[in-house]
Amino acid sequence: MEQKMDVISTVKIEKTPDVYKIVDALNRTLKEDDLMFGLALDQKDRSKMVFTIYRT
To answer: What is d(CA 24, CA 13) in angstroms, rounded to the nearest whole number?
Structure first.
């Protein structure tokens, strides 16, 4: 079964060592509300990260 995910918002932030902890806490807390959060390194600027909010 394929799960559809809609991007709600995307923002670039400065790369920070502990930001993944916030993303993990958001995913654990809000998964029942059909929200999912992603974090990735920016492909063009490795000093930035891309934070994305999805509705599942």
So the answer is: 16
